[in-house]
Amino acid sequence: MCGVCGWVDWDGAADEAAVRRMSERLAHRGPDGSGEWRDPTGLAVLSHRRLAVLDTSERAHQPMVHPSGLVLVFNGEVYSFPKIRRELEEEGAAFTSTGDTEVVLAALARWGIAALDRFVGMFALALWDAGRRRLLLVRDRFGIKPLFVASVPRGLAFASEVPALLAHPLVSRDLDRSTVARWLQQGYPNGRTTLAKGVWRLPPGHLLEAEDGRTSVRPWYDLLGQVRPSEVDGVRDAPERLAELLREAVSCRLVSDVPLGCFLSGGVDSAAVVAAAAASGARPETLTVSFEAGEDESAAARRTAQALRLDHASERCTPAEMLGVFAEWHRIAGDPLADPSLAPTWVVSRAARRRWTVALSGDGGDELLGGYPRLKLMAHVEGWRRAPGVVRAVMGSVLPARRWAAKLTAALACRGRWSAYQALQGVWPAAEAARLCGLADAPPAWSPDLLARLDHEPSWLRYRLLDMLTFLPDRMLAKVDRASMHHALEVRVPLLDHRVAEFLLSLPPELVEGKRVLRRALARLGAPPPPRRKRGFEVPLAGWLRGPLRETIGATVFGPTARRLGLDDAVLRSTWTAHQEGRADLGERLLAVAVLVRWVEEWT
Predict the structure, then answer these.
(1) Between 275 and 301, the higher pLDDT residue
(2) Alpha carbon distance 48, 225 (integer Å)
């Protein structure tokens, strides 16, 4: 787990000093070493910040040069490297290190892009081929690891985080105002776009080839093409098959040359990961987080750990911690990212790093198995939308002043299914985001081409796939990556092993509902049943914004930067007042504006 960056200049003017400045902004991702490599022609400079996890010796140092002349910088892990290494050794390859980096490089040298299909893991890599004047950038199947790109005169630059690219002298720091309304709808940069002009993200499962001035981007993995009806025999075979896949996915992610532990909440997702680790013979320590003035699932987590005979610890997230994270939010998130759970993720990652260098988590389970409340609500919304508008308005008016009531009211006012789902999944409903930005209409939250591909899917699968392709990489995984790597902690996500994910997405709805198949697999792994209702990893944001966070967030939302952005003061005032008076829970909307303002103040 590391940070990577680089610059390709087709005129041979790539400068080490500029790349070094980019690398300095990635120092938190790799405190165990750094390295740079410059093509003698000046065409390319590659840089790497190392977090040593596998083979901590200098033999695994990056940038790594292959005898053929290929040069690699690599962020992440390829857990299938032992099998690939054996294949390469049978063909005569020899290795000097014991980790995965040298194997990844040798595989790319031997098989080219076809090697990617053999990679099981999370990775973002850059490969420079001096002989062909060719740069290859690759991002893993589900976007677990980040990779950003910027077009610059005569070439391009890339980095693991946006702030690193903004340190490049030829990358514009200007705000892309056209994306602000879209960002406010989601609270995170969606798809390829970022808020910085000229900076974009390489999508999950995609690769970029830049050869002698010509650049192309294309997918190397297509999730939608992999989801097919399962051949398992329904209830009888699916849990056993899933338990087998989980043992395999977790087992290969337990390989580490540094201390390793597991995050454990009160839910079934993390319990399945921990149980599979125990079933593999490991005894990792577990760790959870609780909230002051919020729901506490640490007791359920402790019961699971005790049943599996694992040591367990708990960390508390307080309003003071939230304020501390908010002060550094723009540096931690980088993109930016208005997810309230960034704070507890940062807190638990800090606690974990005191104990371990690697942590396993249950991230991805809610997207794979429809664990979010909005998916159940959407099933009702699709039916209620057929009611007359006046009926829908009355339904919204009688809902209690809670977070889901505000979202449901906005969803019921939408005309299309996708705008309704945006209102449930997102932060500012599209119409309100448009008003806030002074626009007649807000831009679409998602690519029309993507929505067209999903339109034919059944309702119970359609929104899960959308979450997998957008919400998961752009918000959830981005949050985990930034919060954990801020403390140089590597987080591995076994549920997003592509073999597990493809299996779960191919199951019929009767096995998915209530995460039934995962609960039954959990029993086969020897773990006690978790509570039927997960109590959540949600910050008590509504109360904190009416209390200890009120002054700080209010000063940010109504400060000069919000006015400079052209955000409608009347919309902000009415939102603030409704929230403070308890007429609605609009805390997410206010936090999003505050996060946006802090990012603009720092980086533009």
Answers:
(1) 275
(2) 34
The whole-angstrom separation of Cα 532 and Cα 212 is 57
Fold identical between 2-221 and 225-363+462-524?
A: no
CB 63 within 8 A of CB 72: yes
Q: What is the DSSP letter of 52?
A: -
Contact call for residues 162 and 199 (beta carbons, < 8 A): yes
Q: What is the pLDDT of residues 458-506, one digit of tens each?
A: 999 999 999 999 999 999 999 999 999 999 999 999 999 999 999 999 9
What is the domain partition of the chain in residue ranges? 2-221, 225-363+462-524
Question: Above 90 in pLDDT, residue 62?
Answer: yes
Find out whether 584 and 401 touch, Cβ atoms under 8 Å: yes
Angstrom distances, CA of residue 489 to CA of 76, 296, 390? 12, 24, 52
H-only helix segments in 79-194: 81-90, 101-111, 162-166, 180-186
Contact 270, 494 (CB under 8 A): no
72 strand-pairing partners: 64, 127
pTM score > 0.90 for this model? yes
Percent residues over pLDDT 70 in the chain: 94
CATH code of domain 2-221: 3.60.20.10
pLDDT of residue 501: 97
Report the candidate in 343, 298, 342, 350 with the shortest Cα–Cα distance to residue 319: 343
- CA 377, distance to chain mean position in Å, is 24
In sequence order, the 6+-apart residues with CB closer than 8 A to the CB of 383 are: none
Residue pair 262/274 in contact (Cβ under 8 Å)? The answer is: yes
Query: So what's the architecture of 225-363+462-524 in CATH?
Result: 3-Layer(aba) Sandwich (3.40)
d(CA 557, CA 561): 8
